[in-house]
Every structure is written in structure tokens, then in C-alpha cells.
UniProtKB/TrEMBL annotation:
Ranges for domain Homing endonuclease LAGLIDADG: 99-162
Key words, A-Z: Endonuclease, Hydrolase, Nuclease
UniProt cross-references to Gene3D superfamilies, sorted A to Z: Homing endonucleases
Protein's recorded name: LAGLIDADG family homing endonuclease
Source organism, top-level taxon: Bacteria
InterPro entries cross-referenced by the UniProt entry: Homing_endonucl (IPR027434), LAGLIDADG_dom (IPR004860)
Organism: Streptomyces hokutonensis
GO molecular function: endonuclease activity
Amino acid sequence: MFGFLQADGHLSQQSRRRGRLTVEVNARDIDLLREFQKLTPYNSTITERRRSTNFAESHHTATWRLCSLEAGTKVNELGLPYGRKSKTIAPPHGEFSRRDYLRGLIDADGSVGYTSKGFPFVSLTTASTAMAHWVRQYAKDVTGTERNLKRNARDSIYNALYAKEPGQGLAAHLYYPGCLSLERKRAAAQSIATWVRPSGMRSAYTACRWEEWEDRILLELNSPSAASEKLGRTAQSCNLRSWRLRTGQDPMPNPE
């Protein structure tokens, strides 16, 4: 939730010592705002509206509004600045769930799906240098793939892109069953899990078939990093294999 708010929310200082937090999304994503409303122990409202824009004659949006000095102060202290924030946001202070936080960022400012060439991918755009560096390191920890991120020349934005197996591994790690997320992006993450590298496509590594005893260890440990050390495989490979087993893409191992 906080990752989504940092990317797509707006925090303003109002009169009468009341901070106002607003999030506006396409109306198709209103269910996520309703989940935010349930999670927040303050009175808030969700409204819908239709308006004409440069891109559509009728643009249907939903907006969540929360007016509370206490709530505004809390999210500000965690790292959601007042006013314009795109270049200044950074990961929250203190302990937090990195996986869930990054999923919120990608739900708001990222993409999950297939490229025009049919390759699975996960990407995130951000104007914040601190955020770009954090995402690069976290994705490396999960997938073993490092990206050299630079601002693009057109609009000075970082674009962290992970395609093919790294994209599959990252999506499987972030969008686990039952997670709080945009339904359409969770569905996209499930879709790209089925992609298999074409036999004629050059690979940077040689695939190693999973044995049933390895699957049993992976499921028992329930930790890609621990399984990686135990089995001598990459965390990315363990993430993807776990996803495929738990979603029925591959059969579960027979019990010993």
C-alpha cells in the first residue's frame, strides 16, 4: 500500500491542521482503493467521476481521499513528501516488507506483461535516483541479474526493465498468491509464468532439469534464498520453480 501511495498518491497540507491524502486511478482499479480504505483506521471516501481528456472523450476515474492530520503526518514521516515528489521519494525508513513495497511501486508506476516481440517482462519507471538504485539492488538479489540504470535523454527518467527469465522470476517473487495488488497485474504475472524460451533462442545459461527431491526441498524450505544455498541453484531459478509448482504449471513432486 505504501509503495503505491509513494508512486501514485498526493499528500497536501491543508488549513485547520488537516493533511489530505488523495489517490486517483482508472475506475477499473477501484477495488484496490477499497482495500486501502479497509486497511486504514481513519474515515475516508471514494468517489468516481467522468471527464474529457486529450486522450479520451470520456475518462472514468476513482479517487480515494483521506483527511487526517495524524494519518498525513505518519505517511510523511515514512517518506511520502508533501506536494510534488517524483524526484525525491526513497524507500521508507525502518523495517518494511521489501517484496510487498516493490509490488506497490510496480502496480502504480510499472508494467508486467509481454514485449512486442513476445518476451515476458517486468519494468518500473521512476524519476528518483534513490529509488532506482534501491530497485536495481533488490532485483539483483532476487534474480541475480544486474542492470546499469541511467536516466534517459528524453525526459530524465530511469527505466528498470527485466525481461525473459529474470522478468519471470521477479514477477513470480512479487505477485504471490493472495497478495494485495492490482488484479490485472497479478493476472499478467501469472500469464508470463507460462513462457518457455524457444529452443532456437540462444540462452545465457544451460537449463538444468529439476529433480523431484529438489522440488521437495524447495517446498519444504519455502524460501528461495535458503533453497538456493541448499541446492546450488540461483534464487531466480528457485523463485520461478516454486511459482510453477504452486500454480500448477508443473506437477508437484511425489511424497517420499
